[in-house]
Write a structure and sequence with these properties.
Three copies of one chain form a homotrimer. In chain A, strands 2-1-3-4-5-6-7-8 form an eight-stranded mixed beta sheet, sandwiched between helices. The first copy, chain A, has one domain: UDP-N-acetylmuramoyl-L-alanine:D-glutamate ligase. The first copy, chain A, starts with a helix and ends in a 5-residue tail after the last helix. Chain A has about 270 residues and is of the alpha/beta class. Helix content of chain A is about 55%, strand content about 15%. In chain A, helix 2 runs parallel beside helix 11, helix 6 crosses helix 8 and helix 10 packs across helix 11. Chains in contact: A-B, A-C, B-C.
Chain lengths: ~270, ~270, ~270
């Protein structure tokens, strides 16, 4: 049963073990997500060359794939990384950035999902909905405007690909099969800092590296994101000081902040 | 007639509409320019794959092309983006970073200018002068050492390509045909933060998305840059705290700061 | 004889001359290393296109090659840059990020070393040890677990390639042939900020641009890194505020901080 204790335990394990998280991510957020992983106590590595991607995956405890700035060469590396993660039996987190905005992104995200089991898909509502194919859509996801439409799309993806789906928004909703966790933490400043969604995916990798219950791992990462966002907002004047305090809080956050602030809304 | 009211109105429109600004920019500044666009109230997107660049342009309200870290593949995407912007009738802002430093950059910037009408070229004096070809140079731009030489080069470019030209420096000078706006805001710390020139180009994209008078749009972006620079400098101890306060001020700046501080020097 | 006076003199020369440092570095740290170079008073440029890399090297006072995020295309540019630096008689600093982690990285770093004389190799102990080939290893570097094993590896590299080798760690150790400088500055927060090793390499480029005694230049850069780290730690709450204060201190550091704090441990 997911609770503050789950998050506290997973966070302690991340800090004790410093799991290596292999990221193939976009140019915009690489520095931020590496720093977020270091702040929380994990060890980031970024590598995308086809020549080394398999070697690097074999050293890692989780792989985070983020399609924010694609190109052909990078897509090939992503495919190799997903296959290598499968061979090494480590979790893959997929962040389908911008799925739905261009057909190239939607198609790439789907192709990666077809290659092999991913542990967790993490995106916002519209990205998650874009991954549900037209067949599925006609079956049940008619109105796509509400969070519930995204949840229904997430549930379809979870069943189709056997993964957890983490949907960020004013309320963060994580689904896996019939299970659901809803979290009410966070702050409106968060979407005004570039790459905090990508950071959520990177941290999801760190939690998945220490907790094989991926529904819980995904929720733990969103809980820490949201709570650190609230703490940062109390000290920030604008988006840049918000980002600074947020990263500092990933380093500072402990039992008390989690126990006092976690808002499980179901 | 350009005034503080013009800048205030355009800024309000950016915040009300949140225009999507498509950036094909350099690796060094991607995170900074995305954050600057978010801070001011616009929506940044970065995408450079040939497979999707046209789709992304079709969603955007302006395209910003920055040649700061080139390679063949990226140049092709830039060309496609300029053509797509033309087809979609949205403004292109070109930042010819390092034109004049290597012939590859100078040639690439010129090739992009030849493809189709850009709305605004934004660079420093030496970059602007480098874009004027040798023929033009012999006709009038003999001394290249003064700001006035850059202004003359800018005017030649403006006539040749039918665009506004925004020249940054201790005094920012924006020209279009016979028109000129000169602005006296800014701070000497600004060139000690990497990518503030690129940030000026990104913000120019946001202003051009809401104001089709590109001379005014270019000037509005430089006005906000300069004023936020002055405000940041009052709180900074060094370049990093300067950058943080600058980004926060892009979020905080309002009517009062603009009305009180804008220095139109002609 | 290396002393605080050496560092102070070199730092003054960097600030007076603003040497252009050409970086071919990884995507994660480009913004940070550019800002670090600006903060200390140098002029960074990033360029990796084969079409322009030689032109850019010809303008620079030092070249910094960092293999943190490799791909085939970039490796070719790195090779060209090393050759061009040789032709232009300017120092090359090589940061073999992740050598030893994948064979692609180890092989790439070695190939770059074979092309031409580099001035300084800068890495952590395990990267330095990975560059020593198996033949050398059997001769003397049997235990690879102690800093002394890294020093021995560094000395072998120094002799083989005629360069200085700068090994970062709790104690920074710089060797060249029989000479050694050991420095005791720094702070445990430093490895929790991504890219501070890469930043050390970039600053090493700035020092090498003004001091052709590369042992001293490498030590000067590590001295400034360590002292700014100590100063930043006094004001930081976490890794992000640490990074901000560190960059500000690169701008603020002067004679007094260096004279008061430099810890030469041999």
């Amino acid at each position: 049963m997911f609770s503050a204790q789950t998050v506290i335990r997973d966070l302690e394990n991340i800090r004790a073990r410093g799991p290596l998280i292999h990221n193939i991510t976009n140019f915009v957020v690489m520095n931020l997500t590496a720093n977020a992983l270091l702040s929380i106590g994990a060890s980031p590595v970024m590598a995308h060359a086809e020549e080394e991607v398999e070697d690097m995956v074999s050293l890692a405890s989780a792989v985070v794939i983020n399609i924010g700035t694609l190109s052909r060469y990078w897509v090939e590396a992503m495919k190799k990384a997903v296959r290598a993660a499968q061979d090494n039996n480590i979790p893959v987190i997929l962040d389908p950035v911008g799925a739905g905005a261009t057909s190239y992104r939607t198609a790439t995200a789907r192709r990666l999902l077809e290659i092999g089991p991913v542990a967790i898909i993490r995106g916002n509502g519209s990205e998650i909905r874009a991954l549900v194919d037209s067949g599925a859509r006609t079956k049940g996801v008619d109105s796509l405007e509400t969070p519930e439409a995204a949840v229904e799309a997430g549930r379809l993806l979870s069943e189709k690909y056997g993964c957890a789906v983490s949907i960020s928004g004013p309320e963060d909703i994580i689904v896996r099969g019939e299970e659901t966790i809803r979290l009410g933490n966070g702050h409106p400043m968060m979407p005004r800092v570039t790459g905090l969604g990508c950071t959520a995916s990177a941290l999801t990798g760190a939690f998945a590296a220490v907790n094989p219950k991926y529904l819980e791992a995904a929720a733990g990462a969103m809980a820490v994101m949201g709570i650190c966002g609230e703490l940062a907002a109390e000290q920030a004047r604008g988006p840049a000081s918000f980002e600074l305090h947020f990263l500092d809080w990933l380093h500072l956050i402990g039992t008390r902040e989690i126990a006092d602030r976690l808002k499980i809304t179901t």
